[in-house]
Amino acid sequence: MTASEIAEALHGAIDDWYEAQRTDTGVNRNVMTVGLIMCEHMKTDFPLAEAQWFSGSQIRLLSGSKISKILARHGETRPLASEGGRTSRGSQDLARGFETAINSSTAAASFADADQDMRAEVIKLLQAAMVERIQTDFFDRQRLQIEYRSHEPTSTAVRQLLDAAGDRGGNATGAVAQHVVGAALCLHYPDMEIDNHSYTTADEQTGRVGDFVVDDAAFHVTTAPGEALLRKCVQNLSLDVYPIVLTLRDRIAAAEGLASNFDIADLLSVRDIVEFVADAVDVPAQYERSTMAARLRDLLDIYNARVAVAEPDPSLQVEIPDNLG
Fold it and tell me: What DSSP string runs through 35-52?
């Protein structure tokens, strides 16, 4: 068997072991770290035997630094675990389950007969597949991280949220911008029902005149204002609806320039998303710090609840800082 063929067969055994650990809340990090390290033991010790990988008190090699090195070999530099769970009883049981799955694989004999170079190639393939699982089940599902510092303005926390989304790439910034504006409107108008649609739901599909409608105003949330948006604004005005464009600070000039091209610069409002959201927190709180903090917590709770309903990706939710009540 070639290295690829052996890896494919062993991968099937690892996949069965891995998926058996999945619960309604996902896969525990210890499953991921144990999988990476048990593959590492296979380079030199096979068939796997507990006496080789277990010291009597901990799983050998299972440490945060070792896990980081393996991840880095496959291009992943985000931190997974500081310690790796090497002394936990749960990790030991996981390692025993891994040993059983691999040793009973149809490719076990072929791997045992392979020379060191082929074993290294097989392990490389197996760990690459495990890193992909980790990226899908851990890194890509991690909530957005922000810090709260009471001496900083609310706008700093909102900007952190958008920046964290930007680091994700793709359409995360647009989705987060839409939902945090929706949350701000809910916070500001608690007795009003504010629409909550998936970011990918087009206005045309729902007959909406904007992302959100409050009385006679249509709110358009965008990270990249373009001519299509301004056409919607023109249509709003023809319906006697007041268009409000919410965008990133560095895109405001572009939006205003486009509005001038459409001769509607004096008929719409263009605002910074961050400041709009921050005002929904700060102005009703009358800039009293403890009240601002409480309203920011409410905003983030509303945001998470709206994302949970509208989006299939839970990683768009925000991890609420412990010091925010």
Answer: HHHHHHHHTT--S--HHH
- The C-alpha atoms of residue 40 and residue 172 are separated, in whole angstroms, by 35
> Element (H or E) spanning 315, and its range?
none
Dist CA 196 CA 191 (whole Å): 15
For residues 86 and 81, give the distance between their C-alpha atoms in angstroms, rounded to a whole number: 11
Question: Is the torsion defined by CA of 266, 272, 278, 280 positive or negative?
Answer: positive
- Contacts of 229-234 with C-beta under 8 Å, sequence gap 24+, read 229/255, 229/258, 230/258, 230/259, 230/261, 230/262, 230/264, 231/262, 232/203, 233/259, 233/262, 233/264, 233/268, 234/262, 234/264
Task: Determine which helix (DSSP H) or strand (DSSP E) holds 318, and give its type and residue range.
Answer: strand 318-319
- DSSP letter (8 states) at residue 104: T
What is the three-class DSSP state of 147? coil
pLDDT in tens, the chain (325 residues): 899 999 999 999 999 999 999 987 789 989 999 999 999 999 988 999 999 999 988 999 999 899 999 999 999 887 787 555 545 788 999 999 999 999 999 999 999 999 999 999 999 999 999 999 998 888 877 789 999 999 999 999 999 999 999 988 888 999 999 999 999 999 999 999 999 999 987 555 556 899 999 999 999 999 999 999 999 999 999 999 999 999 999 999 999 999 999 999 999 999 999 999 999 999 999 999 999 999 999 999 999 999 999 998 888 999 999 898 7
Q: Where are the beta strands (DSSP E) in 174-298?
A: 212-214, 217-221, 242-247, 269-272
Residue with tokens 């768009």: 316
Kindly state the tokens that stand for 162. 């958008």
How far apart CA 119 and CA 292 sit, in angstroms, is 58
Maximum CA extent, the chain: 78
Supply 149's token pair. Answer: 């510092």
* Class of 144-319 in CATH: alpha beta
